[in-house]
Design brief:
The protein has 7 helices and 12 strands. It is α+β, with helices and mostly antiparallel strands and 429 residues long. It folds into 2 domains: 2-157, 2-Layer Sandwich (Beta-Lactamase); 267-428, Histidine kinase-like ATPase, C-terminal domain (Heat Shock Protein 90). The strands form 3 sheets. Strands 2-1-5-4-3 form a 5-stranded antiparallel beta sheet. The protein binds adenosine-5'-diphosphate.
């Protein structure tokens, strides 16, 4: 699936860039043709002007008009033309009647208007560039000079240019195709990652749901098939089914939570939350929980309020998740500390325990969904490996960050930083 999408992306990219390249090459070739023609025209015009000046000086020697028939204006057919690059030169009078010519015999009358033309020789072998120039003496039209040059040099230059294009365009197209393939790979990378992530998530979630479901089914089956009327045993089985169902419901709630709170929280759901008050409330509530009975829970909170913008319930859940973990993974007689202070424009919450700690190798993964350092122990304590993923998602949705420092046997410190509300920073919203 990914390879097909990558191929499609690469093909579309090559098609789009290839079309642009071909249009670009065509425009460049067209400009080159114009450039070459202009160069040829400049040369032809220069030669024609020189020849026209010669004609005028021959015709008006000593201000005396000379009889045209007897003046060698353009050289003669027997003698070569003074300029070897020219194919022919023709002199017409002001009534467009042919007077003299050199080279191919023309019509007696000038049939084309003035200016530049591209024509073929009579034998259709060579392309010629021809210019027909009206010649004036004292603002009076005295005749027309028509001169032509072969276009061989221009054709050769254009042929070389076409060869360069014929080689460079396919090479560039291949480079574009390779780039398209590479870019397709780069573009598919995040999609592939999120797809794999989703697949792993679905597989993990199904796996987590499968075990309690089988336990529920086997308990129910045993209850149905058993002939014992012992009400205590029946009650125990129902109790077990109830507990499994409760844990499944908590797992489903967690999964729904992770699916629902993706990305930043919308502005309308943000309110000013006093973290000092919130953490005090959590310590009071949590201290009475059975989970916290075996440890000493200490809170170090500032006397003044520390305000952040957020969702109070979500922040409550994030801190409770950390506290619950700290209590779960700290043996009897241990200590868990909840601290709050501010640092520049951040509110800093720290949950520190002196429990079992987390091995260094596991630290990069503990915020991943369903990741548990010790599967057996966590299953025993009922953890699905979603608590930290949920906490991280909550904190990131508040534009904050969560980090951990831990060493095995010494304990762990989880730190949350959240941006302080603008009011506290003395800013107006
Ligand atoms: P769980 O529900 O399994 O506790 P979490 O996502 O909350 O899932 O935590 C992931 C894993 O990180 C846990 O399985 C545990 O191994 C480890 N962990 C989290 N907090 C602590 C802690 N305070 N001390 C030691 N290990 C911890």
């Amino acid at each position: 699936m990914f390879n097909r999408s990558r191929r499609n992306l690469a093909s579309w990219f090559t098609l789009a860039m290839g079309s642009i390249l071909i249009i670009f090459a065509a425009v460049v070739y067209y400009l080159e043709v114009i450039d070459q023609l202009e160069e040829l025209d400049r040369l032809l015009y220069k030669k024609t002007i020189v020849m026209a000046a010669n004609v005028k000086s021959e015709l008006y020697k000593g201000e005396q008009q000379v009889d045209l028939e007897h003046v060698p204006l353009l050289g003669s057919r027997v003698q070569p033309l003074p300029d070897s690059q020219l194919v022919y030169a023709r002199w017409y009078d002001e009534k467009k009647q042919l007077v003299q010519f050199f080279g191919v015999a023309p019509h007696d009358r000038l049939s084309v208007p003035g200016g530049f033309d591209t024509i073929k020789t009579a034998d259709k072998q060579i392309w010629l560039r021809q210019v027909t120039l009206p010649v004036y003496q004292d603002n009076l039209l005295i005749g027309y000079l028509q001169v032509a040059m072969p276009m061989t040099s221009t054709e050769n230059a254009l042929a070389s240019f076409r060869l360069i294009l014929a080689i460079s365009v396919p090479i560039t197209l291949s480079v574009i195709a390779l780039t398209g393939w590479w870019l397709g790979g780069v573009a598919m990378q995040p999609i592939r990652h999120s797809y794999e992530h989703l697949q792993r998530f679905t597989a993990d979630a199904s796996h987590e749901l499968r075990s309690p479901l089988s336990a529920m089914i086997s308990n129910a089956q045993y209850g149905l098939l058993s002939r014992s009327d012992d009400p205590v045993a029946q009650r125990q089985r129902f109790q077990k089914i109830f507990e499994i169902a409760k844990s499944m419901s908590s797992l489903v709630n967690n999964l729904l939570f992770l699916a629902r709170y993706q990305g930043r929280l919308p502005n309308e759901s943000l309110q000013e939350v006093d973290l000092t008050g919130l953490l005090k409330q959590i310590t009071d509530e949590y201290g009475t929980q059975p989970e916290a009975q075996h440890i000493s829970l200490i809170s170090k909170l500032p006397t003044s309020s520390v305000d952040v913008l957020g969702d109070k319930l979500l922040l409550h859940q994030a801190v409770v998740n950390l506290l619950s973990n700290a209590c779960k993974y700290t043996p009897c007689g241990g200590q868990v500390q909840l601290q709050l202070h501010t640092q520049s424009r951040w509110a800093v919450i720290q949950v520190t325990d002196n429990g079992i700690g987390i091995p260094k190798a596991d630290l990069p993964y503990i915020f991943e969904r369903f990741y548990r350092v010790d599967k057996k122990r966590s299953r025993k304590t009922g953890g699905f490996g979603l608590g930290l993923a949920i906490t991280q998602q909550i904190i990131q949705s508040h534009s904050g960050e969560i980090s951990v420092k831990s060493s095995v046997g010494k304990g762990s410190t989880f730190q949350i930083i959240l941006p302080l509300a603008a009011k506290r920073l003395g800013m107006k919203c």
